[in-house]
Amino acid sequence: MLLYLRLLKESFAFAINALRNNKLRTLLSLLGVTIGIFSIIAVLAAVDSLDRKITNDLSGLDKNTIYLLNSSFGPTDIPKWKREQFPNVKYDEYVYLKGAMTNTDQLGYQIFTKSEIVKYDSKQVSDVNIVPVSAEFVDIEKLEFSKGRFYNESEANSGAKVIVIGDEIATSLFDNADPIGKSVRLYGQRFTVIGVLTKKGAGLFGDSNDSSVYVPVNFIRQKFGDNNTSLTNVIVFKPESGVDMEAYKAEISQKLRAYRGVKAGEIDNFFINVFSGFTDFIDGIIGSMKLGGWVISGFSLLVGGFGIANIMFVSVKERTNLIGIQKSLGAKNRFIMFQFLFEAIILSVIGGAIGLLLVWGIAVGLSKALDFEFVLGLGNILLGTGLAGIIGLISGILPAISASRLDPVEAIRTGM
């Protein structure tokens, strides 16, 4: 055992010495592996960061959450002209389904509307995301508060002029002052601030809660009516845990069809969109991005591997005389093989380490410059290092074997 450890130590020392004596060659050999590892790990780190951001943004919603509205979240076989005839879901349908549905944890009503300006004294914030929802959304979206509360069912049903604001809105309008109890202007009317949402950071899909305000859905209904085509109404279902989703969707369809008087044989004039379908779609995109990154970066690694193999064959050619002398002095074949194999692996690992450092530096810089956290995880670091080692092993194995099999007499004669 000690003999093998000594053999490994001496082979490692010879490899390091060879790399030091050929600095330019070493540098050129590093470039291919550095670019390859940088490409792969940069893509994987970016995709992992994106995946983490998406997961964080969607963490407040259960994957079984269902959105009932007159449009589909994904592709559909129903022609566009037919879909355009589908009626908007109505508030009375929400009230009906709320009392009729079984196995339901929460059921809420939301209206999608355009952004507005929110004012307080001489200050104002433009392009504010207005979120008119029923009282159940505090539980559906698992909203968290730094101050105050969400409006209750009574306030929501009456369309009370109360408002819950995001952290960014609170900071822009009130600086460090307490917003609770103060009045802001929206739609030309005064709303009393009753809650401030906990800061979440920028959202990946449009506006985040930080730049949003929540108002009772019935205020919007009273202001714009139920038949306003510029608004999109949605009924949101949160089923109980463990419910058979297909049976639950069938129950929604059966009860809404009966309520609307849809005849047997006619298609549903509404869409039941399950949130898990959207997340599966996103997961598919992320998987494709990872695969694309591997394919593109694989070519860089292939070029880097060929570069190292070429340099190692040149190194064997240059040191043929030295190999012959080492063998004549008693060096075993495995000693010569390990010497060149270690040189290739060390060369590749150094190139990989430089590639990882570049990824880390860019990730830190982008995280500071953008409101988005790029993360170089331990898994990607280990993957990059492992790939570099494997590339070095594969690239160096043939030159190392050819060096170990040289005849000592012929090697010395060739090198003279």
UniProtKB/TrEMBL annotation:
It is a multi-pass membrane protein. The chain crosses the membrane at residues 27-47, 291-314, 335-362, 374-398. One of its GO terms (cellular component) is plasma membrane. The keyword Transmembrane helix applies. Residues 295-408 form the ABC3 transporter permease C-terminal domain. Coiled coil: none annotated. Residues 26-254 form the MacB-like periplasmic core domain. This is ABC transporter permease. It is found in: Cell membrane. Pfam families: FtsX (PF02687), MacB_PCD (PF12704). Belongs to the ABC-4 integral membrane protein family. Keywords: Cell membrane, Membrane, Transmembrane, Transmembrane helix. GO terms for molecular function: transmembrane transporter activity.
